[in-house]
């Protein structure tokens, strides 16, 4: 994430390389023309930042702004924001970029940089909101959607993150991308969508973990038979810690298949490390099951 934002700032900083401004999108007006004095200041600031003299650049830009408080200009605010960001003056950088956005809200690069600054400040929700504006103005490539999805995850908005990931990974995501999509839908409590992605990942690149995820989601959805099928597929790959047998046993218990449940708990205890959580849980469920059977037998004897 940190690397992404550094790249984003380099892309968005119109003062650091090339011409002073790029051609705007057709629907966005050109920034107003600059007078000779401002053009000279911007050009000197650009050269200073290109040479790494960011403080000198900020000083000359600030001096111009102080001399002409009534002359607000998009490029002046944008370049001041870039210099402030490079000097790690993030709060001031955000103010400068926000001023630029107020002057020309249709420019996607300024919203990208507002997002960059907010992310650097730890404001992931604000960063995602700014980046969303930028992407509405100019849709990004897949990497851009991935970055937005990551921001929404960090901000605790998993539903929006999942939608961004779907745009990032396209119609044929690889298994790792499907894992991420499934986990994100789970965080959003959308179990059906999470199951769809989890099943695709498990079918394409089967692992114990992937089939366990499928089994767990099916269990929570109440699809108990499908849950057993998934746990068995995971166990067939390598149930080294016994968890697949433990989970199958719990499902069998819920289905009142007591003999199957007892056999699964026994296999789980055999596979798991003696003091592991899986071993303890299997032993606990086995004891509860055996106690239940004993009580049922005693009750039958008493009735007879």
From TrEMBL:
SMART domains (UniProt xref): TPR (SM00028)
Keywords carried by this UniProt record: Signal
Gene3D superfamilies attached to this UniProt entry: Tetratricopeptide repeat domain
Keyword set includes Zinc: no
Residues of the signal peptide: 1-22
InterPro entries on file: TPR-like_helical_dom_sf, TPR_rpt
Signal recorded as keyword: yes
Pfam family, one: TPR_16
UniProt name for this protein: Tetratricopeptide TPR_2 repeat-containing protein
Organism: Desulfococcus multivorans DSM 2059
Species lineage: Bacteria, Pseudomonadati, Thermodesulfobacteriota, Desulfobacteria, Desulfobacterales
């Amino acid at each position: 994430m940190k690397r992404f934002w550094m790249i984003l700032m380099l892309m968005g900083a119109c003062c650091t390389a090339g011409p002073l401004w790029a051609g705007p999108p057709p629907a966005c007006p050109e920034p107003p023309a600059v007078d000779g004095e401002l053009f000279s200041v911007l050009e000197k600031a650009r050269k200073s930042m290109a040479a790494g003299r960011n403080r000198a650049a900020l000083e000359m830009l600030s001096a111009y702004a102080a001399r002409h408080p009534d002359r607000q200009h998009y490029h002046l605010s944008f370049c001041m924001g870039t210099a402030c960001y490079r000097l790690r003056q993030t709060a001031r950088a955000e103010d400068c970029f926000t001023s630029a956005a107020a002057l020309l809200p249709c420019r996607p690069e300024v919203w990208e940089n507002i997002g960059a600054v907010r992310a650097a400040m730890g404001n992931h929700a604000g960063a995602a909101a700014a980046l969303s504006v930028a992407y509405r103005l100019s849709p990004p490539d897949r990497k851009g959607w991935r970055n937005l999805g990551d921001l929404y995850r960090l901000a605790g908005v998993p539903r929006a993150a999942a939608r961004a990931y779907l745009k990032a990974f396209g119609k044929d995501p690889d298994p790792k991308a499907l894992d991420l999509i499934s986990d994100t839908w789970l965080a959003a409590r959308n179990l059906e969508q999470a199951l769809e992605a989890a099943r695709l990942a498990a079918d394409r690149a089967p692992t114990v973990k992937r089939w366990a995820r499928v089994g767990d989601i099916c269990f929570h959805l109440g699809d108990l038979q499908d849950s057993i099928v998934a746990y068995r597929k995971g166990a067939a790959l390598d149930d080294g810690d016994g968890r697949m047998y433990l989970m199958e046993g719990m499902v069998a218990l819920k289905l009142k298949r007591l003999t199957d449940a007892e056999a699964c708990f026994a296999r789980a205890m055999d596979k798991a490390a003696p003091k592991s959580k899986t071993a303890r849980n299997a032993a606990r469920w086995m004891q509860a099951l055996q106690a239940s059977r004993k009580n049922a037998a005693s009750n039958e004897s008493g009735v007879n």
